[in-house]
Amino acid sequence: MKQLIRTKLAVLYLFLMAVIAGCGGGGGSSSANVVNGVAAVGAPLAGQVTLKDSSAQPREKSTAIDQNGNFAFDVTGMTAPFIMQAKGSAGGTNHTLHSLAKGSGRANINPLSDLIVASAAGVSDPATAYADPDPAHTRLIGDNLAAASTTVLAKLQPLLAQFGVAGTDPITAPFVANHQSMDLMFDQVTVTLSAGAVSIVNKQSGSVICNGSVMNLAAATFNAAAIPVPATGALDGMALYNQYCDGCHGTAKLGRSALAIHSAIITNTGGMGSLSTLTDAQITAIAAAAAPVVTPPPASTPLDGQALYTQYCNGCHGSAKLGKTAVAIQGAINANTGGMGSLSTLTAAQVAAIATTTAPVVTPPPATTPLDGQALYTQYCNGCHGSAKQGKTALAIQGAINANTGGMGSLSTLTAAQVAAIATTTAPVVTAPTPPACGSCHAIPPATGKHAYHSTRATCANCHGTGYSTTTVNAATHANGVKNLTTSIGWNSTNRTCSNSCHGTKAWGI
Questions:
Q1: How far is 188 from 203, CA to CA, in rounded Å?
Q2: H-helix or E-strand containing 72?
Q3: Pairing of β 93-101 and β 82-90
């Protein structure tokens, strides 16, 4: 008997623990008597939500939608299911949307929830379903809701997949009006219900994505080519944290990593398994928002080596610093050289600062002035050689000094740099020869040999090649001492004959 009682108590304990765990976690989880959700069309609706229950005499409640699109109802004492109607504006456009909660918990209101309610109710306008006073009709919508949701998700699967929310229930899944995931899809498409027809249009291109009857959504036409490309944007980690985490963890963020948050969701730690619909990107954004702000340490003030020297060294060493290194100073302290052991409290950084102060200031050598070769030549050479410089190299000049050629041994005090400067000055300026004038070498055209005979029967180019005529020459090959003749004439320079297509072998003559 005692064993049976203990067993029942253990079962009861486990049941209570499961109930307590179910209350933990974030993600907008609700208490037992609350219906809550988000009303949005991409941007949150600015307006109110009205909820009606399924009691014999239906009761209604209204509540305002907050700035993030959130709303909540205490449904204690009310009868499920609950049909809801949201009226508000977003982006300057008025909207009337509907949703249904089969019990307490999450029930979002958005364009797809509106479509699902219309399909489940079998009406062309979901507003008529909300206005229907018969609670049996509301219960019928609740019975048909799952099937209608499945049909909508199947028909719109390519569109939902483009935004990473394929298979995500637009009514019961966690939802944030942050222009991400499904909310981003509502930013980029327009869902219109009118006279029993549904039309989903790409806002940017105006192309129709889906078009059909609310009464037969499965047969609606679907144009995958019209699906918009999701506009990328950074996830709002703070908004996600407030939506999914703040309820349990509050503003005191724990600085958990994305890996730790993901692990807690997988293992359902504290009921966090309810957040299993969060994407990796959303978890990463939450982790970034939850990371504690690290205040960097204040920047350290550089040590004043001069002040330290004045305080610890000047009394013995005076202002004549010895330029010792930090190693030498520390060694003198360690060995108590000259009583410097009294400075053993100095840190390594302080010793290094003192060493930089005691380092002697090195004055850079003055920039060298280039030697004036002309002035040196005038001073040492002009007296004997005059201004007619002989263009000798530095090696030749130094050789003449070493051999005392012409008494140049007297210049033995000249440095190698001075000799080199004189040599650059004595280098003669080479003037290019003036090219000979045309006609100074031969007549124009030439009259030697057979020129007179050929000039009446052929052109200069026939024998001499391109660029030659009675008035022109080839500058690249002319006036170089070489007679230029084409290979086609069979010229033999040894016996001065040619043989070509004009005649056989003939001597050119003188």
A1: 6
A2: strand 70-74
A3: antiparallel
The secondary structure of 210-233, three-state, reads EEEEHHHHHHCEECHHHCCCCCCC
Q: Could you tell me the pTM of the whole model? A: 0.46
* DSSP 8-state class, residue 441: S
Q: Calculate the alpha carbon distances from 258 to 12, 112, 174, 248 in Å.
A: 35, 31, 19, 18
**Does residue 444 sit in helix, strand or coil?**
coil
Q: How far apart are CA 343 and CA 354, in angstroms?
A: 12
For residue 114 the two structure tokens come to: 């509106």
d(CA 322, CA 320): 6
Burial (CB < 10 A; 0-12, 13-18, 19+), residue 20, is exposed
As a whole number of angstroms, the distance between CA 139 and CA 133 comes to 12
| pLDDT of 424 higher than 60 | yes
How buried is residue 269: exposed, middle or buried, by Cβ count under 10 Å (0-12/13-18/19+)? middle
Q: pLDDT, tens digit, for every residue of 95-123?
A: 999 999 999 999 999 999 999 999 999 99
